[in-house]
Design brief:
Blueprint: H1 6-17, H2 34-52, H3 58-78, H4 89-110
Helix pairs in contact: 1-4, 2-3, 2-4
């Protein structure tokens, strides 16, 4: 579906090419980690996808959930060195935009 698409692979390559952005450490205030942020945003987008596409049957919803889990696993793999860090503002902005691009791939696939 999405994870096996060329668009998704291009996004993962873009993330890898942008790893320099993650060299700077965020504040160690015990706030939300990159893992928390990614998981929450992917989950939020997953719910939005299902709400925006009420015609999707239960089997397809399950496939979408599996794909969302794969996205989080891929992001964890690429960002493993910083996964438990608190993100900086530029890192938050990048990740939010990146996750929204992934949602756009799902939206395009479901049309």
């Amino acid at each position: 579906m999405v994870v096996d698409s060329e668009g998704y692979q291009a996004l993962i390559e873009y993330l890898v090419e942008s790893l320099a952005l993650f060299e700077q450490k965020g504040e160690e205030s015990g706030g939300e980690t990159i893992e928390d942020m990614v998981s929450n945003q992917v989950a939020g987008n997953l719910m939005a996808i299902c709400e925006q596409n009420p015609h999707i049957d239960a089997k397809m919803r399950f496939v979408i959930m599996q794909e969302a889990d794969a996205v989080v696993a891929d992001l964890e793999e690429v960002l493993s060195a910083v996964w438990q860090r608190t993100p900086t503002v530029p890192q938050r902005e990048f990740l939010s935009e990146f996750i929204n691009l992934i949602k756009n791939l799902f939206d395009s696939t479901l049309r």
